[in-house]
Amino acid sequence: MPEQSRPWVSIRSTKLTAEIDPQGAQLSALKEGTLDLLWDGNPALWAGRAPILFPIVGALVGGSYRLGKETYHLSRHGFARGKAFSVVNTTPSSALFRLSADDSTRQVYPFQFELDVNFALADASLSVTTTVRNKGDADMPASVGYHPGFRWPLPYGHSRAAHFIEFELDEPEPVRRIGTDGLLTASPQSTPVEGRRLVLADSLFKDDVLIFDRLKSRSVTYGSDGGPRLRVSFADAPYLGVWTKPGAPFICIEPWHGITDPQGFTGDFKDKPGVFVLAAGESLSTTMGIALLEA
């Protein structure tokens, strides 16, 4: 049976309000006044809004991974986005959610993990901090990622064609793409970024997601020259995905600590590109910031 949905948790600051669905600890609304900056999750196009990706990012070769002599199956982006998180603590401007290992997760991911997602608003900024803890007694490989979808165009009266993503620094390195199997292709492609600016167009996404795996920037801004814009910051994420379905009114800006399997990958899960390994008792925290920048 599907897990029963629960009321969204609302938090607010002087500039923004946010609502988080305990199902997946998913940011589900982000508003300036009555203007919603986040995609609304229309299932006819994409039912997600801002899912948390764990314990993998992307897809696995054949939908499975090898850990020692055992093989386990996981669907794309892992199971966290479909699980009910507990609400640990709330204040008017913050909320902490937790997912812990149980019998169902151990069948596909045999580790004693704890996954916390903390949302905090201050003025015109939202921080989302995800902490992965190894509560077991063996090394634990994992990946974690953010997948927020923003409205394209933003609700400030500028055309869809006027929108762009501007990187903090020049990004001249090639980008990576995935095949129809959802796996990383071998050959990098020339970057569509000119200087620091990626002008958004549906044609960029005919081959699915753009993946930046040699990233220099620690933030990007998204919007139009007329503003306002959103700044998405990611102090330590080694990868960034940019994705939409061509023609859809959303754009996803996705900081990742992990990446989809390369085509032909046959190694152990601990050797999967992008995976980090936590020793017993260790944890890893990563933060994504979303800030509204006035024109």
Characterization of the model:
With 295 residues, this protein is mostly beta strands. It has a single domain (10-293), classed as Beta-galactosidase, Chain A, domain 5 (Distorted Sandwich). 1% of the residues lie in helices and 40% in strands. It contains 1 helix and 23 strands. It has one helix spanning 103-106; strands at 9-12, 17-21, 26-32, 35-36, 52-53, 64-67, 70-73, 86-91, 94-100, 113-122, 125-134, 140-142, 144-146, 149-151, 164-167, 197-199, 210-212, 219-223, 229-234, 239-243, 250-257, 276-278, 283-293. It has a 9-stranded antiparallel sheet, with no helix packed on it. A hairpin with a 4-residue loop joins strand 2 (17-21) and strand 3 (26-32). It is globular, with a radius of gyration of 19 Å.
Task: Please tell me the CATH architecture by its name.
Answer: Distorted Sandwich
Residue stretches low in confidence (pLDDT < 50, at least 5 long) are none
Strand coverage percent: 35-45%
Q: Largest beta sheet, briefly? A: 9 strands, antiparallel
- Using the coordinates shown, work out and report the CATH topology: Beta-galactosidase, Chain A, domain 5
Calculate the terminal CA-CA distance, rounded to whole Å.
48 Å
User: What is the molecular shape?
Assistant: globular
The arrangement of helices and strands along the chain is EEEEEEEEEHEEEEEEEEEEEEEE
By secondary-structure content and strand pairing, the structural class works out as mainly beta
Q: List the total number of helices.
A: 1
Radius of gyration: 19 Å
Number of domains: 1
Q: Tell me, rounded to a whole number, the average pLDDT.
A: 96
Number of DSSP-assigned strands? 23
What top-tier CATH class fits best?
Mainly Beta
